Amino acid sequence: MNLLPFLCAGWLFLVGCYALATSRNLIHAVGALAVCQSSTYVLLLAVGYRSGGTAPVFSDVPPGARPVVDPVVQALTLTDVVVGATVTALLLALVVQIAKRHGTVDPDELRELRG
Amino acid sequence: MTAERILPLLVAVPLLGAALLVGAGRWLPRYTADVFGLFVSGGTGALAVAQLVGVRGATGPVEWVAGWRPEGGSGVGIVLVGDGAGLGLAALISALVTAALVYSRRFFDEPPPGQAGAFPALLLLFQAGMCGFVLTGDLFNAFVFFELMGVIAYALTGYRVEEARAVQGALTFGFVNSLGGYATLLGIGLLYARTGELGFAQIGAALDAAAGGGDALVTTGFALVATGLLVKAAAVPFHFWLPDAHSVAPTPVCMLLSGVMVELGVYGIARLYWATFAGPGGVPAADAHRVLLVQGVLTAVLGAVMCWQQRHLKRLLAFSTIAHTGLFLTALSALTPEAATGVGVYLVAHAGVKAALFGCVGVLLDRFGSVDERELHGRGRELRFVGVLFAVGGLALAGLPPFGTALGKALCEEAAGPGATVLFVAVSAVTGAAVLRTAAGVFLGAGEPPAGPPHFPRAAARGPRTEHRSAATGGRGAGESGTSDEHDTAPGPEQEGEPETTGSGEEPETAGPVTRAPDSMLVATTALLAGGLAVGCVPALWPHLAHAADGLSDHSAYIAAVFGSPETPPASTAPNWKVSGVLLDLLATLLALVLARTAPRITAGTRRAAWARPLRRLHSGHVGDYVACTVAGMALLGLLLR
């Protein structure tokens, strides 16, 4: 088993969290959240990978003729992409409203909800 | 139509209703849209209750969607499990959504032009997401429903997009919850890698079948999945989004967030542990106990301390929700069926009481354009009925028998041991006292009036509605509208550098100030409080709650039920009042009254407790800080699980 994809997924999640925590721009922060999410894509696809496997499409070959990668994780990843698109779109819409209402997209300058 | 076939309808009906409302909202008058929304949410609730009647323990209906049953022990089908806990929560969710719809009858008198159905449609979508989350027996689907209810909740929190605070609170909520969701998904990926299964029961069965018991990978998977659920449950230090979201969300949305969505995180943890990890191949009970106990105690104490410090009423109630979630987690850490029963009773009663308290605050907001304790001082005298409701809600929160909260608290104390009992009495007394203190100040004018002038002239709190509307339609530049909002953003002179959120300058949620509390609001609030009372007074409910808890906390029965060979559940003992529990409840209520009585002298004027200041500073409203705390919380979780 190759450990690299799992380390890569962990790295992506952590680096995304770091970017989120230190972000000075909310649009950048939404991007950082997307980086965190891409760690889940990497992990899921790595979990389902088989050495020498091809795409799980059986239009031209009978099932069992060759190794294929796990189609379940691909379905999960696709669902995940859709979820991510929804979240990103909504957060960006909120950032637009923040820019209009507060006149800034720097999280350091949003100081209303405290204590 | 068999019982199994009804299960998907509990998710599909609200989804379909929301789609119809959005599609036809353009042509519908407001009244029709509201009645249709009520019909759909109430009908879903009726379906859930009808299913619930025949359920005993884990032997409810189980539906493999589209007939994709597992063959030879494995499969890719998606399963919905209508056991007592799932269906019961679906019924609770539907009841609260219905109450919120009734409550919001007079809200938002000017919905977005041409979209009368937007708000009810969002509430129905929220209901669909939550019902899906409680009914699914599939971990990945639980993630999808988790994100669905999350996204709808962010949208509902920021529903009044023209308000500066609302969008900020919604954004914080969105970032922290989505991050938690992705941690959950990473955990699901690891568990799938180990077992090749995605269902709660299927993963549990596969883990139990593997030799050797749980290892680091399984534990990491549990920690990651639990992270997302703890974020939803607002356990410390994942809780920062909750007070910010509650401070800004419209009142009916607060009812749903505090009443049931946060508690679904607690349910998720219980379901995840018992269905999947309670077997020999999962997480040792000692580890799970340690995690839940530490998280629960931290959450309860911090919630109670911060609750006492607040002057923004919605924020005060939000921290009281955090404190109570901490109590739920603490009780759950006993990991016994009795503890689950206690948490179930407490949770259902708390939902009614907390939603009713938010309902009272909503009336104040619409009458006076403020939810600030000091600014409202003595002004609530005219709203006598609301005052009574609010005070009774505070007493119920402290644990006054015969409210369901008191019964639930007594059961939890009994299940969790003497150490936890001290915590339960102290925390419920403090949160109840904070509400009672406010009730005395606002509705009776007790204590000293606030020192100095209010931060903002009353007119500023009353006026800005039209201003905002023109800002919305007139398309003014960002900088310009930023200055027009300055009365909202500038800190008052006395609180320069003081980390706190005032509740003044809030926009009422009705078109104009209401002269008296609208009937729809009062009816919904009273009904919710009566619901909280009924949980403690109607013995017919107790066996159902006990069955639901027994089913939830039985590892093998759940797996057997999902795989189609339900076991006959052992007879469970229905909870009942005990003298010791009643005495402890009365003690907590008495403590709350004493605390509330002495409170005006403590908090009058501007002096605040200095020792709590670092804690208040921690709640900085900064997304980056909250994310950093979430990551620290994940590390804490890892340390506790080892």
Question: Can you put this structure into words, describing what you see?
Answer:
- The complex is a heterodimer of chains A (115) and B (642).
- By secondary structure, chain A is mainly alpha-helical.
- Chain A has one domain (4-109): Helix Hairpins (Orthogonal Bundle), CATH 1.10.287.
- Helix content of chain A is 63%, strand content 0%.
- The longest helix of chain A is centred in the C-terminal third of the chain and has 32 residues, at 71-102.
- With 642 residues, chain B is mostly helical.
- A two-stranded antiparallel sheet of chain B has the order 1-2.
- In chain B, helix 6 crosses helix 9.
- The radius of gyration of chain B is 23 Å and the shape is globular.
Q: Classify the helix fraction of chain A into a percent range.
A: 55-70%
Query: What is the percentage of strand-forming residues of chain A?
Result: under 5%
- The helix tally of chain A amounts to 3
Q: SS-based structural class of chain B?
A: mainly alpha
Coarse shape of chain B: globular
Oligomer description? heterodimer
Radius of gyration based on Cα positions of chain A: 19 Å
Number of domains of chain A: 1
Task: Determine the N-to-C terminus distance of chain B.
Answer: 49 Å
- Main beta-sheet strand count, sense and barrel state of chain A: none
Mean pLDDT across residues of chain A: 90
User: How is the CATH topology of chain A named?
Assistant: Helix Hairpins
Helix content of chain B: 55-70%
The major beta sheet of chain B can be summarized as:
2 strands, antiparallel
Of all protein chain pairs, which has the greatest interface, and how many residues does each chain bring to it?
Answer: A-B, 46 and 65 residues
Brief account:
Chain A is an all-alpha fold and 115 residues long. Chain A has three helices and no strands.
Descriptive terms for the model:
heterodimer, A: about 120 residues, mainly alpha, Helix Hairpins, 3 helices, about 65% helix, B: about 650 residues, two-stranded antiparallel sheet, 26 helices
